[in-house]
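Run log, item B.
One chain of 91 residues. Sequence copied directly from the ordering sheet:
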Amino acid sequence: MVVLDLKGKSPATDYFLIATGTSNRQTRTVADEITQLGRGRGFRIFGRAGYEQGKWVLLDFVDVVVHLFDEEFREYYDLELLWGDAKKLKI
């Protein structure tokens, strides 16, 4: 799991959280848990995409965008390289 600090780099969000699931079911379950956790802490989800396929699920909480990939999609899109100048935060 990686958190990229995009403040000042992206006009759309402040942080990307990027993680890899081992199966479509696990990716959807993690998406559900993150959504519930966000709601419990007062964060409203603005949008969700890719949930049905479970290969790349995007959860948009405005200030934080969560990307949950399967291994193939994470390697293909390589967001860490795309945002290579962003600071990686330790969590």
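Observations after the first pass:
- The chain has a mean pLDDT of 95.
- The CA atoms of residues 49 and 89 lie 25 Å apart.
Flagged for discussion on Thursday.
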